[in-house]
Amino acid sequence: MKILIALGGNAMTGPDGSATPAAQRDAIRIAMSHVAEVLARGHEVVLTHGNGPQVGNLLVKNELAASVVPPVTLDWCGAQTQGTIGFTILDALESELGDRGLQHPAAALVSRTLVDPADPGFARPTKPVGRYLPYADALVLIDHGQVWEDRGEKGWRRVVASPEPVEVLETPTIRTLMAAGYLVVAAGGGGIPVVRNSEGVLQGVEAVIDKDLTAAVLAGALGADVLVIATDVENAMVGWGTPEQRALGAVSLAEMRAYAQAGEFASGSMGPKVEAAMRFVTAGGERSIVTSLERIADAVEATDGSVGTVIRK
Q: What pTM was computed for the model?
């Protein structure tokens, strides 16, 4: 089967959320042990990944150096983290495959995601990024053209647009590499956001694209059979935090949509994952799976939907 695996932030950082280089290498090594198992079972794989903590670190460096050097824009931050995470994934995957006596070619692509310049998100930036700062420190960055909001006692925080992904522009290259037998790492962090200006020329923009929504777009464009969204829990839940809390196993698209419309999934956590899973199936995908990183190989093989939350039409 052709499978797109979207790795969550927990796959890129330590158990305590640490984003030190050592913690990231250790976490990625663990993640690649599970991806290697999927490959060992004979499946074609494309990987996407989060980059929130890594971009967060770059934003702190921006803040600390803003009075000395110009801040690096978010599209540049995305490109830098794609490169760093991509090569770390390749090293870890090669090692894990070697431990199994296997070899498999792999490549990481710095990938751009096209968004609509007329997307309403650009007119009303609402996605918070980075840390809270006192006004005096935020003002230095506001003077560089960034948008910051007063968040009360916590201080000021930067907000950016979060437009809908339209197309991963490197899709033809991914297809070519897959046809040559490669595992491809692409569209990290949702992809580097780019728009076409009035003259049709591509340019990067200050925005953050939801990585799971981009994963759904890319999986559909590649004709993937299965979209796997790896997170830190084995199943999506309904009735969260109540006596009626229960895990969802195999569910129809209509059932999942009804749960989503009833507000069962938090917008800042499970909500985007469920939305991406539903979009993939709606667009013609065979099935979407939301499950823990540790269970991705078993979930792919369990066609009866006994592992993870599985959505089918």
A: 0.92
